[in-house]
Design a protein that fits this description.
- It contains three helices and seven strands.
- The chain is of the alpha/beta class.
- It has a single domain, classed as Rossmann fold, CATH 3.40.50.
């Protein structure tokens, strides 16, 4: 599925739409260049599911947001590869709520096949959002 967002507000609304379909145990991996809108979309998901304001966990690796469906937001920007990820204990979160992973392309081959990938790119000032299931 390909969607287009013309503003940060539209990106947040697309995140809300994704959240409305999410369920406990889902994993969503976000890819795209720095500043493409990954955290903006995640703000929509977190707000919809928990009522909380999401922030980027770049310096702490993970933010946890309790709610009807708990949200676990990982930001892998500072990690380098599978070795670092294994040491985080991230697998413990997989069935506890919704797992959101920024920079998921860095660990694509260790993510479960059921992972949904959201790639965000900026083309002509608009965000092109490609959503697909699987690691390919």
């Amino acid at each position: 599925m390909i969607l287009t967002a013309k503003s940060p507000e539209e990106t947040i609304r697309i995140g809300e739409r994704i959240a409305s379909r999410a369920k406990k145990g889902d994993i969503i991996g976000f890819t795209g260049e720095l500043g493409s809108g990954k955290t903006t979309m995640i703000k929509g998901i977190v707000k919809y599911l928990t009522g909380k304001e999401a922030t980027s966990p770049s310096f702490v690796l993970i933010n946890e947001y309790p709610g009807k469906i708990p949200v676990f937001h990982f930001d892998l920007y500072r990690l380098r590869g599978k070795i670092d990820m294994k040491s985080t204990g991230w697998e413990e979160y997989l069935d506890k709520g919704l797992v959101l992973i920024e920079w998921a392309d860095r660990i694509r081959d260790v993510l479960p096949v059921r992972t949904v990938f959201v790639n965000i790119s900026i083309i002509d000032g608009k965000r092109k959002i490609a959503i697909r299931r699987g690691r390919k």
